[in-house]
Amino acid sequence: MASNQLGIRNSNVFVPYTASTKATKWISVTDPTHITLTGTGITTSTITRAVIKAYADSLGNWHLRFNISLTKASGTGVRTSAVITFASTYAVVFKATTNLYQAVPFNSSNYGGTGYTTYNTATITIVHPSSDETGYSVLGDVELDSEPTWAAANMEGALPVDVYIPPASGSTAGLVDGNAQSFSGVKTFSNGISLGNETLSTYDEGTFTVYLSDTNSITAGVTATYVKIGKIVSINIPYAEINPTAFTTLILTTTNNATTYTWPAALTPSAIRNVFFNRYYNSTSAISTCAIASTGRVDLYYDLLGNAWPSSSVNKGYLGFTLTYVL
To answer: For 180, what's the count of Cα atoms within 13 Å in the CB-facing half-sphere?
Structure first.
């Protein structure tokens, strides 16, 4: 391997970036509707030989290599030119630069010379002295205007990277780069990411509407935001201006009903979770506790001991907090 060859290396495996990754294999064309010969006195034509190959150069410009021989199958007439056209399945567009006629050497049954491509078309024109030629051959390498539509399905050496580097498994390292990597696009891992003995399979973030019930009345809904990483859930609830005079029990719910209590299914734990949280209530910051049940009921308590909320003569207070717990 040349020292300046580009590619992907993983351990002792090297996948080269070569011209073959941007070149089709040689394609043998046998259908006379895909490459045609037309001209005065030519009714039908037959392909004697036709092989073509498309490739991109180092600047990304696409080219077509070809070696084609066609014979007149039927028709009689003297002509001074003939036209070879790439059509149907193997259509191409020669470089669309105005007045760019690319030279193409040819031989006919009686003459030899140079034909040319016509820009922004798929035709090669052959010009010769007046004669009823029975066949033509062209050989060349010319620039195209873009990648042919048939190129992707006929790439040379187009093998999946798994052929070079097997996918990771319990006994196979797979494609791994020990150095730091940056990705500009989005990478999808449908089965999660393995971190040692654990697999991180979930990341989610979003919002939902939540209400505060005292079992008799309910506040207006507010928008709660959440982030879920694996089994860890963190929810921010921006409550404001609640009336603390009547209640002793506070329940969070996603149902706008003072006696019906629900919680988002994806955020509901498998068993009851007791969570400490910092809350700001009635101009005082303190630490409270919260019980999140697997039934979807979320009870907020006044303090760490789980006491009920005290009645107050204050007309309005504030209650806002963040809950973090394990599902």
So the answer is: 1
Q: How far apart are CA 111 and CA 136, in angstroms?
A: 9
Q: How far apart (Å, rounded) are the C-alpha atoms in residues 144 and 120?
A: 9
Mean of the per-residue pLDDT values of the chain:
80
Per the CB < 8 A criterion, the answer to whether 261 and 282 are in contact is: no
Tokens found for residue 160? 């999946």
Query: What does the DSSP 8-state code read for residue 170?
Result: S
Distances (CA, A) of 204 to 188, 191, 208, 237, 267: 14, 15, 13, 17, 10
Structure tokens at 90: 């193997």
Its pTM stands at: 0.47
Residue 142 contacts residue 136 (beta carbons within 8 Å): no
Show Cβ contacts of residue 155 under 8 Å, excluding neighbours closer than 6 positions.
21, 23, 24, 25
Q: Is 270:311 a contact under the CB 8 Å cutoff?
A: no
Domain with CATH 2.60.40.1830 in the chain: 203-326
- Residue-level pLDDT at 249: 76
* CATH number, domain 203-326: 2.60.40.1830
Q: What is the mean pLDDT of residues 177-205?
A: 72
Rounded Cα–Cα distance for residues 47 and 28 (Å): 10
Q: Collapse the DSSP code of 72 into the 3-class scheme (helix H, G, I; strand E, B; otherwise coil) and give the result.
A: strand
Is the Cβ–Cβ distance between 173 and 11 less than 8 Å? yes
On whether the CB atoms of residues 134 and 109 are closer than 8 A, the answer is yes
